[in-house]
Structure formats: C-alpha cells, structure tokens
Amino acid sequence: MKLSDKKFGFGCMRLPMKDGKIDTALFSKMVDKFIENGFTYFDTAHGYHNGLSETALKECLTSRYPRDAYTITNKLTDPYFKTREDIRPFFEKQLEWCGVDYFDYYLMHAQGADNYPKFKKCKAYETAFELKAEGKIKHVGISFHDTADVLRQILEEYPQIEVVEIQFNYVDYDDAAVQSRECYEVCCEYGKPVIVMEPVKGGSLVSLPADAQTVFDNLNGGSNASYAIRFAADFDGVEMVLSGMSNMEQLEDNISFMKDFKHLTDEEKAAIKRVCDVFKNLNIIPCTACRYCIEENECPKSIRIPDLFACYNTKTAFHDWNQDFYYNSVITTVSGKASDCIKCGKCEKVCPQHLEIRSLLDDVAKEFE
Fold it and tell me: Residue 214 in 3-state DSSP?
C-alpha cells in the first residue's frame, strides 16, 4: 500500500497561530505551497488545536481543492466516546468538520495498554471496519504510543489493520521507554506500512546543544530538521513522515529536501550517530538500561526503573512534553510509579553503575508526579 507519491506529510497539530487562533490566511498559503510541490498528505485529529485543526482543514484545504487533490487522515480519540453507540455520530461530525464525505485513513488514536481495552470493549475497531465497508473510510490503522509487545498484541488481534503511525526519530530509536526501533521492527514483521510522527521530536532536534550543532555544521549545509526527517524517511517500510509545521519557513525548508528525497550518505549517518552520543552525554542519570535492577531480582512494586530513568533523561535533555505522556499514560499504567518505591534497596545491590536508585526515583517522582 502506497500512502502517497512522496514520503512527506503535513501534520496539523502545530498550525500557525495569530491572536490565539489558527492563522487561516497563512495556513492557506502553506497548503498551496505544499500542494504546488506535489505533496498531498494531511494528518489531523479532533484534539489538535481543541477541534480547530479539522475546521481549519475545511476552510484552507477541502473547500478549495477537489477531493482527489489531497489525502486526509483523521483519528478516533479516547475522550470523545464512551460507548460503541457514540462512535458513528462522532465520526459523522468529523466528516462534517473536515468538509469531506470520506477519510482516506482513519486511525485508532494513541493506542496503548491503558486505552486499548476501552477501544476493544466499545468495538471501535469493528465500527471502523464497518465504515470502511460502507466507503466512508478507505484504510483503517492505528497511531501508537507504547511498547513493542503491546503493538504486537494489537496487530495479532486485529490483522485487518492496514497502517501504523509511531513516534520515530534518531534519538528515540534506541530509547528504552519509547522503543521506536522495536515498534518499527514489529511493523515490518507484520508487513504494516509505517507513518512516522515526531521525526524532529517536537522541534527538539532543531535546536541542538553546541557540540551537536558543530557536528552538523561540518556537513554540507543541510538544516538540522533535514537530517532528522531524512533519517526517518530512510527506513524501508516507512511510507510517510509527518512534520507539524507552524510557519512558511519550516515548510519551505522541508520541501527543499523532501521534494526529491535523497538517502542519507555514510558521512551523514556517522554525523547523526555523533549527535546521538552528545545527547547521551547530557543524561542526568547515567543508566545504561542493562535492566539488572528488574531482571536480576523482582522489584516488590513492579517499577520499571530503566524506563522511568529514560523518560526523565529525555525530558531533561529535550524539554519533551511527550515524556509526561509516556510516564503517566503508558509506562506506569501497567507498572509502579517512582513514588511507589519502598526503599528496599534490592535494585542498588545489582546495579553495575552503582547508582543511588532510591534517591534518583525521588527525583523522577518530583518531575512527573
């Protein structure tokens, strides 16, 4: 399945703002520039801009272009339904808000261990498959925020899923909490095309520490965003890379290197690895994620210590709001929180880094709880 002729999509979560509202005049110009350069894919959800992302697409895209000129993805998000009977009326409103009579892609939004049972109980997947049979959805998929094991479970239980959207960038690639690489590999194993969100980690991979910036400055003049987005697009099976663009400068920069996409050179790959090493050196907690603390002995409170430390480090290094989501809505929904620690000290006895884990968990609890 090919999502688009080009691998680059417009994520409509960070649209241009003016006086506290979406700047629809500027957004319309950005839509025009995007389409003029051969790009067609737009991604939204009702929660983006408190529902205004969808209506902005109607005003700036769907009311101005023929239906075959663009591809639009929308999502079913947890807060907007309580029962199966709520889903169809909400879906019909989404069509109305976006100004279309069908969605090219409709995703079960932000799937993970905490909300997947609700989607199952309410027959959300089955409802989406029914809407596909009726022609109101062309393809059904999921966006995903959890571990590879949970993704595998969902794909096993719903093999009809056609596409998976995951967080994927060069820093999260080997992150113990986000598990980008592992989730990508599960998608490949099950033959599911991948849509990438957060390729520049909410902008964190644009504003780099000085040592990391020097590495990219010594290359061939590409922008920081170009290396991050091309890193994601370089993987087999990645059919679309989204970017949440909030001004024309970002759009024009992204178009400049994605219009005629070129794979990363060996020199660029080596530079990205060096930048990753810079970020690793910024970590407040020097945990190597060996997992001895939870595998060599059983934590009495089932605290996933390395994963909590990874969240803490990533938030510290990138000021990344997503880590609050992973901490509160992914990791600690199925395991203990940092504040649950009873100070038994078993973990510290097996830690090869000799970390003061009990004290560090207090720091994590202060940050996230």
Answer: helix
Q: How far apart are CA 141 and CA 139, in angstroms?
A: 7
> What CA–CA distance (Å, rounded) separates 148 from 189?
11
Residue 291 amino acid letter: R
34 within 8 A of 10, measured Cβ to Cβ: yes
Average pLDDT, the chain: 93
Which among 59, 65, 58, 13 is positioned nearest to 39, based on CA atoms? Answer: 65
The predicted pLDDT at position 88 comes to 98
Q: How many Cβ atoms sit within 10 Å of the Cβ of residue 50?
A: 7
Cα 289-291-294 angle, rounded to 5 deg: 145
- Among 40, 49, 108, 99, smallest CA distance to 74 is for 108
Are the beta carbons of 45 and 56 closer than 8 angstroms?
no
Strand, coil or helix: what is 65? coil
Which DSSP state fits 303? B
CA distance 169 to 197: 8
354 CB burial (10 A radius; 0-12, 13-18, 19+):
exposed
pTM of the model: 0.83
The pLDDT of residue 13 is above 70: yes
HSE toward the beta carbon, residue 244, CA cutoff 13 A: 19
Q: Note the pLDDT tens digit of each residue in 24-77.
A: 999 999 999 999 999 999 999 998 988 999 999 999 999 999 999 999 999 999
* Token pair 């110009």 in the structure block, residue: 29
**CB-based burial label for 236 (10 Å; 0-12, 13-18, 19+):** exposed
Between CA 52 and CA 98 the distance in angstroms is 10
Task: Give the SS3 label for residue 73.
Answer: strand
Question: What is the arithmetic mean of pLDDT over 262-275?
Answer: 97
